[in-house]
Task: inverse folding
DNA sequence: CTATTTCTCAGGGAAAACCCTGAGTTTTTT
DNA sequence: AAAAAACTCAGGGTTTTCCCTGAGAAATAG
């Protein structure tokens, strides 16, 4: 008997999973939580074998919650649930200890297979996501997924530029010299291939560079 | 007996709705479609009274599908389903004929109420979304309230600014003096309430000021 | 511990953007 | 035809951004 818990703020998804698994005698749903807080609270009482965890939670970032939970309960297997198949996202959450990644268009069969895989210490990814990750690591990708890596400071400066702040204001906000802000701005323009700050903002919005 | 169909590429959501409504004798789910294409195909055979339509479909933009369906079947009531509560998004889909908007964290009671409301030619919005829209229209928001009217030239200049062009370049492209371009830029900043060109671009993207 | 990356800062100059005022011309609306 | 709105341009000044070089300190990765 596998004990499964679900954390998702979408009732429909919760219902969907429950309905899918209701006639599976090997599965028992031991908990349904609609927020990170409730999950933490409930797991302090009793831990399931597997937690299906929605990434887009209202209160906390799903990745942080994942990290936190695994720190508390190293035996717990977490399968990330998401609507998006962004590979960078997948990589991030897997790096933070999740054992699997499922899109919400999954099937009962896939769910069951995922449970088995992660409980025998494997890692379960949906085939198409696996393919994508593979392509990415092989460089077989088209062009668009060239998501440049920005450093912490660069992200902060970029965010401030997007807020229509001037170099002077950014410097004061970050407690650094205006010259340093300029350096970051120039590095950003160079890294992102923009011609000026306007291009920076466009790229930041398009590629969602500031999310997380 | 209300005939309800669902279009959503997430099996879990589909299952969730079905499971929620399975014991409602007044509701009959007449179709479940995982893509826009399948929906169009199926509705050409038989139309439901209400269609629960996920906005984020793989093949077509949900808003376009909504418009298309209502062109074909004016009697059809469409309730948009989404994970996001972006008010601009809500406004857009309602303008395109949808009768309701529900987040995926809805409940059975709300679903049933939504069905009733839209079938009696009303418009159903979740209370919190309604509140948000209200606040927005009351000017409780920063700059999103008014849709500023831009002149032909202003749109051209704005578009060029968004292309990362300098005043000099824009002047050459439009065969006008750089001074004139500056004037337009200043008028834009003033009209749109931006602090600089970066703000201009952000607003242009957010509010789709350059579409037509 | 070492190598690499990131973060920090500066000088100095060119270019672009920002901001005001004022004003004639053309186009559109009434 | 008159009024309003949009388009045009300029003078003249301030502020900000852009761009280069160079370089030490701190944090991170191997």
Result:
């Amino acid at each position: 008997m596998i004990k499964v818990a679900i954390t998702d703020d979408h009732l429909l998804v919760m219902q969907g999973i429950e309905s899918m698994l209701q006639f599976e005698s090997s599965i028992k749903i031991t908990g349904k939580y609609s927020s990170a807080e409730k999950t933490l609270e409930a797991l302090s009482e009793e831990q399931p074998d597997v937690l299906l965890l929605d990434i887009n939670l209202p209160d906390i970032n799903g990745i942080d919650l994942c990290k936190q939970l695994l720190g508390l309960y190293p035996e717990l297997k977490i399968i990330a649930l998401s609507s998006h198949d962004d590979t960078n996202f997948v990589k991030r959450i897997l790096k933070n200890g999740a054992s699997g990644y499922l899109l919400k268009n999954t099937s009962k069969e896939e769910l069951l297979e995922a449970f088995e895989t992660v409980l025998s210490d494997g890692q379960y990814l949906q085939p198409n996501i696996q393919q994508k990750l593979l392509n990415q690591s092989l460089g077989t990708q088209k062009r668009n997924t060239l998501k440049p890596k920005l450093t912490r400071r660069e992200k902060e400066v970029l965010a401030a530029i997007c807020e229509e702040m001037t170099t002077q204001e950014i410097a004061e906000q970050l407690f650094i010299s205006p010259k340093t802000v300029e350096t970051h701005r120039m590095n950003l323009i160079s890294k992102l291939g923009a011609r000026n700050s306007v291009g920076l903002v466009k790229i930041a919005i398009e590629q969602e560079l500031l999310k997380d």
